[in-house]
Prior knowledge:
The structure holds three protein chains of three kinds. By secondary structure, chain B is α/β, with parallel strands linked by helices. Chain B is 23% helix and 36% strand. In chain B, β1 (96-102) and β2 form a beta hairpin. Chain B starts with 6 loop residues before the first helix and ends in a 21-residue tail after the last helix. By secondary structure, chain C is an alpha/beta fold. Chain C contains twelve helices and 24 strands. In chain C, α2 (35-44) packs antiparallel against α3 (49-64), α6 (154-160) crosses α7 and α9 (428-436) crosses α10.
Amino acid sequence: MLLNIKNLHLEIGGKEIIKGLNLGINKGEVHAIMGPNGTGKSTLAAAITGREGYDVTKGEIVYKGIDILEMPPEDRAKEGIFLSFQYPVEIPGVSMTNFMRTAMNEHLEYQGKNPIPATDFLKRMDEKKKIVEIHSKLTNRSVNEGFSGGEKKKNEIFQMAMLEPTLSILDETDSGLDIDALRIVANGVNTLKTSENAFIIITHYQRLLDYIEPDFVHVLYDGQIVKSGGKDLAIELEEKGYDWIKQENENY
Amino acid sequence: MMEYTKPNVLKKHLTDLFEESKVSVFSKDKDYISALRTEAIAQFDKKGFPSGKDESWRGTDLKKVLSKGYQQFLHPQNQDIDLSKLFICEVHNFDTDILSLLNGWMVNGYARLKTFENGTIIGSLAEAMEEYPELINEYYNKSDKINEHSFSSLNTAFAIDGVFIYVPDGVQVDRAIQMVSIINHDENLLVQNRNLIILGNNSSLTFVQCDDSTNKLTSLNNSVTEFFIGENSNLDHTKLQNLNNKSTLINSTYINQDANSNVSTNAISLNGGLIRNNINVALNGQGSNANVYGLYLMDDKQHIDNRVYIDHKVANCTSSELFKGILDDEASGIFNGHIMVRKDAQNTNAFQNNNNILLKDTATIDTLPFLEIYADDVKCSHGATIGQLDLEAMFYLRSRGISEDNARMLLMYAFATEVINNISIDPLRERIDDMVKKRLRGELSICDTCVLHCGSPEKEVHFDIDLSKI
Amino acid sequence: MSKKNNILDEVTQGEYKYGFVTDIETETAPKGLTEDTIRFISGKKKEPEFMLEFRLKAFRHWQKLKEPTWAHISHPPIDYQDIIYYAAPKKKKELESLDQVDPDLLETFKKLGISLEEQKRLSGVAVDAVIDSVSVKTTFQDTLSKHGIIFCSFSEAVTNHPDLVKKHMGSVVPYTDNYFAALNSSVFSDGSFCYIPKGVRCPIELSTYFRINAANTGQFERTLIIAEDDSYVSYMEGCTAPMRDENQLHAAIVEIVAMNNAEVKYSTVQNWYPGNKDGVGGIYNFVTKRGMCKGTNSKIAWTQVETGSAITWKYPSCILLGNNSIGEFYSVAVTNNHQQADTGSKMIHIGKNTKSTIISKGISAGFSNNSYRGLVKITKRAGNSRNFSQCDSLLLGDKCGAHTFPYIKADNKSSVIEHEATTSKISDDQLFYCNQRGISTENAIGLIVNGYAKEVLSQLPMEFAVEAQKLLQIMLEGSVG
């Protein structure tokens, strides 16, 4: 199993957000995590990637057979965990090219390899940009600075293509995207999908799942996965809304 | 009347006057006040009047003002003036209690301290010093930084009367309180009124402070106002300054805020020979917020000097400053905003903005927007601009058939409204809005707000408010 | 938080690489400052009478002055009688070629990465190397003289071009200007001189490298750059000093004159020894730099990267006298540990349609204090002038200070002045974003700081920019709060 989350409990500022979550993911799988706002979807992404201020009080996150809870975020990244941010932050003055090159070289160093020569790097950038239909200008600009919503999300998928992660988490990548950008982002993901990697797609709507077909759909509610199923579950959710889930859970 | 040639002569005169008064007027003081006076005069004596060399007075030259002789009343004067005609508030529908000061002394209704059922005390500071020594002891002259300014020390040394307001815990004062200070005397006069306003916890107050002249004679008003704002309390403060061209107003405002308190203070300067607003805000309690605004419209040879010092002493406070000014003719202006963020005052948000328009090449403005920051988790910014009216906007308006004069007026007014809009009391805002319009059209002189209309006797006198209130 | 603090404690500062001392024979004046000291210096330099007079006038004026106190800095009083005002590497004989330069000196500059051997320079940069009080070697003089460009030590200029020196010295920074300018004018020992004749674009970068080596000495050099009509020059200045426990004084003057349509770019990477992490030792850097845009359409641009010195007191300025002249100031000032910097610019608009730009980026870390102080003055006759200033501060850690003290004065209605300032820190979001892409916190800070300073660094000549970028990274490794 690539990722195995066991009985995860997590607090933010003393308030429990995730309350005993279990999730197992194998290579070659796409998992969708759905659920109403504020049920802990983004928190789960933060927990897997190691964001500070998210205190795991119980349980473990096992990735490639190792509990990664004590691992700093950059090492998790270098082990192949990638997060496509819901709100990618702007870093003024730092060019995308410089940023990506630094990131790639740190990955390579971690793998005990030599840094990538500049020409090879630029070639790789050009190749990968095509996957998400990014025009060259974007990579000359500072990281996310002045990018439109769609550009920011495309840029996230572009970085994913550059770093070739094993486990990618897409946090609400579809939010704020128009239909064209959504198609481009989804195509990008489908192109990158292999039998050797896995995806977690966090989304509120079923829309994205029309383009990226999930193997499993999980409903996260009040810090727990309360329902799991196949693609049909997403369609059912779209039809019935989340109230149905809420009622079902409150009736317990 | 005495004529002096140098500021240090005036200084000597004042320190001598103090010595004389110690055994006469001040001999009845409570010990606490008496000790304060002695300390304050010593501080004043040591520092003297500020000169152009003082960093905080750079650009404001007091030499001329301080080279004159001034008379100071240490007793209330009986004047043959119809007080009912002297004090007028032209604000329609403005439900307000008026406290009137004539030449620095409380007159009329509130000369006697009034205590209301809910415990609010309003009236003369002189009387409060007698009646409420415990409150005076706790608050009087306790403001942050107050002893660092020699004008404030001078005031402390001589202050006898002014406005005293005490609002107990949990009391919301519904009616706005308006203080109207008028100088009316036929000789150069030095006035040093002192105001003390105390808000307990969970209380609120609206306070309007008007400084007006009724004639065109020389005066020097060195006024000090201290505010103590308790936890969760709100103060809404507006200063309206409309004085003659021979007047000098040194207005020092000290605002001391406890946790979660909220203060909005507006300095609207429409006229005055030399106006200096010292605004000191001490954010002493977490979660407190201060909004400090100002508008100045100066022409002729008028001089305006606004100094704002906002001290973020603790974490989680916010402040925002906006000062805008239009300077015409040979008017000169200074704005100095100083945001201090102390070590550990984390999570501070502080913003400061100063925008100026010069209408003539003879007008000048200096702006000094300072930031002094010792904590890292802060969001602070300042901006300052100096320029003329937007020429493109001018052209746009004129291309729509608006005359150049009207276009200019519209743009100046638009420039000023950003500050005016921050005044929360509707009738007051409308009134100030009206005065600003008049001012911009050149129609407002101090005679317009003064009911005496000595300069233009043909004008009819309107009394828009119920005179029985004053 | 604790993790970050650990990094902060661990790497309080990148090592100061230039802290070594060279053992060279030095000739010094006795400690202290009197008229005799000045006569000694002037005599040593075999100066013409007018120079001695200039020095003595300056000295007599200096004696009447008091050290300024308005800057946001503090230091124990400086004992001006406890300083050696003249120190020079002992010369065996007149230098004819590089072979005759003391090999130890050559080694010193090699260690500093400054090659004095012309043929070994990859790109064309002419260097004037100044050690302690005197210039030891100026390269590429021959190449330059073909274009009529004079680039030599100040002393040589006094001997060979006394008229030019007489005409321009003190014309931009008079000895009466301020305390340290008066001090420098009395005791300055050497420095660089540069003259670009009419219509000449200087084909290579010129640079001066200043090095303090001897102990207990002050360094007082003086640079004069004259750009005649329609000329152009780009000038660079670098400096380092050994690590010593006592503070050393550096009080320099730089004067620039730009005539009609002339353009001068002056770039500095200031890396004087900043003292150790407890604030012991380091250079007190009190410098007066000013350019005069004397001609119409002239332009002077200052770019500075300030990383060194225990105290920096420095306000490179432009007097925009010629109509349509342009003044620019780009600055990155980094302070760490107990460093104090009070730096900024003055733009005095006198000519019509003059323009100025100030971009200042302060970075504070450790226990340091970093202040921007600047003056923008638009006089009555400077109609239609423009200024734009932006002063940003970045705080790394909660024990340092970042301050902004701009003075903005406008005396006419047709000019426009805009000033903006912000204060920020590196956000946790930015760090996490970098971490999530596999970039370590240290490298992330390096990236972000260089990004923050990019606007200024991009103004530097190429080889300086690379050096400056590295310097920023070394200085701030791990200091995040």
